[in-house]
TrEMBL record:
Residues 1-96 form the Major facilitator superfamily (MFS) profile domain. The keyword Transmembrane applies. This is Major facilitator transporter. It is found in: Cell membrane. Keywords: Membrane, Transmembrane, Transmembrane helix. It comes from Streptomyces sviceus (strain ATCC 29083 / DSM 924 / JCM 4929 / NBRC 13980 / NCIMB 11184 / NRRL 5439 / UC 5370). It is a multi-pass membrane protein. The chain crosses the membrane at residues 72-92. One of its GO terms (molecular function) is transmembrane transporter activity. One of its GO terms (cellular component) is plasma membrane.
Length: 96
């Protein structure tokens, strides 16, 4: 959401660093909490979700940016990403 080319490049770098840190940690936690007989199915589903995010995130940001601005595109993405943990927590509570 920073203005200019420097802001876009800084944002891209921060996204890359965040993804590089959270992806291996997330997959390791998922693998540690999954029964061995379901490990392949669980990791496959997680990878599918990650790939859909990799493909859909830029499309969502671009669509909003084309309609409003890049700042709004990143804002919409940030709101959706912030809602993810809340939805996951609600699902965990519902099962428990």
């Amino acid at each position: 959401m920073l203005p200019g080319l420097a802001g876009v490049l800084l944002g891209a770098a921060l996204i890359g660093v965040g993804t590089g840190l959270i992806t291996p940690l997330g997959f390791a936690a998922l693998a540690a909490s999954t029964p061995p007989e379901r490990l392949g199915q669980t990791m496959g589903a997680a990878e599918l979700g990650r790939e859909l995010g990799d493909a859909g995130g830029p499309l969502l940001v671009a669509r909003v940016a084309a309609t409003a601005s890049l700042t709004y595109g990143y804002g919409v993405l940030a709101v959706l990403l912030a809602c993810g943990p809340m939805v996951a927590a609600g699902l965990v509570r519902r099962r428990g």
